């Protein structure tokens, strides 16, 4: 039997930038919501805070090979959620000093730090932006009580503006000391909306064929290279394996996009899946949430949601399909990993070069360090009723606790779980909103 720790300890060198991650672990993006926010003054939004710096200092001490930030928005009035960080050339400041502090904190123990860049497109709450912009005027359905405005289709000039905004944000992060960026092309956000026939009904060069639908993504990568002018700057992409909705991006199309990304020098592709329209893998979870939070004793006895206990690595099968099509770009698989053995098996099988972790690192920020030292073999469990959405909200609360220097709630403790659920009983709409947006 091979030693999983020795395999996970191995460094990974990226093919195009030449940069090397010190081990096979990646902290995947999660929406931190620790930046400044003003409802009435967009210029008072998006500034990194000392809480955000503390959060990344904590994760850095966990010996993670690559740390990816939560999604940084490129327009101050188009946000995934309140409290997002923002890099927008229309803000009074680029917050370069604050971003430098975040980079210093995240890199303090030798991790590579990657800033995830995003535009929500149509997936912005009507309370933040009643007039969203998107590839086409296809409205985002209300999800979990969150309402969305009908989007205005982007003009060609608007698309060029979006491309330049991504490039500007990347240049700021490069100046601040970040090692690279990750473009968010998953979970139904703007770049993902362009890829899907369901949300892209354009008949110009940005619609129709898959190559056309990927054009904004390819132009964005080219613009970042032009703006940064550094061959060692990592460009990566978070890509849906499929959208899991009718006329969404299919597995076959996702593989074709990944091949295009390799041809333009993308160092690694982090595979994910789903969108707001398909937030929960088992649709019955949406129906059951009020019971889970308020009357768990009334849940049907045959209720069995999709959970991490069913298997490790949600997207391993897709990664195995993708692997033969890529010769250089590295593959990151995130989601559902619980044990060091399961993580190492995925690497050994050739499905992934790097293992991404998200929620486990809000409960145990130093989990990777403990695994690599041989002190732990698996992530901490929890005592929640079976609901992915409830777990997502719990992770959001743990992020806030870490950022504020508080003790992290131990949801493997039944008392802490009961107290948390009691709080959520009073905040169900807000809890659903948190769950929809936490995983950037």
Q: What does this protein look like?
A:
The structure is a single chain. The chain is built from 16 helices and 13 strands. It is of the alpha/beta class. The chain has an eight-stranded parallel β-barrel with strand order 3-4-6-9-10-11-12-13, surrounded by six helices. Strands 1-2 form a two-stranded antiparallel sheet. Strands 7-8 form a two-stranded parallel ribbon. Helix 3 (96-107) packs across helix 4 (156-176). The longest helix is centred in the middle third of the chain and has 21 residues, at 156-176.
Helix proportion: 25-40%
Provide the low-confidence segments as ranges. Answer: 279-310
Q: How much strand content do the residues show?
A: 5-15%
Mean pLDDT value: 89
Label this structure with key terms.
single chain, 440 residues, alpha/beta, 8-stranded parallel beta barrel, two-stranded antiparallel ribbon, 13 strands
């Amino acid at each position: 039997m091979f030693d999983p720790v020795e395999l996970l300890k191995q460094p990974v060198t990226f093919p195009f930038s030449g940069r090397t991650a010190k081990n096979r672990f990646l902290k995947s993006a999660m929406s931190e919501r620790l930046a400044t926010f003003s409802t009435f003054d967009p210029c008072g939004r998006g500034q990194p805070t000392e809480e955000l710096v503390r959060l990344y200092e904590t994760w850095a001490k966990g010996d993670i090979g690559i740390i990816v930030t939560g999604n940084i928005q490129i327009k101050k009035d188009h946000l995934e959620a309140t409290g997002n960080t923002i890099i927008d050339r229309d803000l009074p400041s680029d917050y370069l000093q604050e971003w430098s502090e975040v980079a210093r904190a995240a890199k303090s123990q030798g991790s590579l730090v990657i800033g995830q860049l995003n535009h929500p497109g149509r997936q912005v709450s009507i309370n933040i932006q009643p007039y969203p912009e998107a590839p086409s005027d296809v409205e985002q359905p209300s999800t979990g009580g969150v309402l969305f405005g009908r989007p205005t289709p982007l003009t060609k000039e608007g698309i060029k503006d979006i491309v330049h905004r991504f490039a500007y944000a990347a240049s700021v992060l490069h100046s601040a000391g970040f090692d690279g960026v990750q473009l968010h092309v998953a979970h139904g956000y703007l770049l993902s909306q362009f890829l899907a026939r369901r949300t892209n009904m354009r008949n110009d060069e940005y619609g129709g064929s898959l190559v056309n639908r990927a054009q904004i993504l390819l132009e964005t990568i080219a613009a970042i290279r032009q703006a940064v002018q550094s061959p060692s700057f990592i460009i990566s992409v978070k890509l849906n394996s499929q959208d899991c909705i009718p006329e969404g991006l299919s597995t076959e199309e996702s593989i074709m996009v990944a091949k295009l990304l390799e041809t333009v020098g993308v160092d690694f592709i982090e595979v994910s899946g789903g969108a707001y329209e398909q937030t929960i893998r088992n649709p019955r979870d949406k129906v059951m949430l009020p019971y889970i939070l308020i009357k768990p004793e009334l849940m049907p006895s045959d209720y069995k949601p999709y959970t991490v206990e069913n298997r490790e690595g949600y997207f391993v099968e897709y990664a195995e399909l993708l692997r033969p099509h890529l010769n250089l770009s590295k593959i990151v698989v995130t989601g559902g990993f619980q044990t060091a053995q399961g993580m190492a098996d995925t690497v050994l099988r050739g499905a992934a070069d790097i293992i991404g972790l998200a929620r486990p690192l809000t409960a145990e920020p130093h989990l990777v360090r403990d695994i690599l030292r041989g002190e732990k073999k698996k992530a901490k469990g929890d005592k929640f009723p079976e609901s992915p959405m409830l777990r997502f909200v719990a992770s959001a609360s743990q992020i806030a606790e870490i950022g504020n220097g508080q003790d992290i709630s131990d949801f493997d403790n039944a008392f802490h779980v009961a107290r948390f659920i009691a709080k959520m009983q009073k905040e169900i709409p807000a809890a659903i909103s948190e769950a929809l947006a936490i995983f950037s």
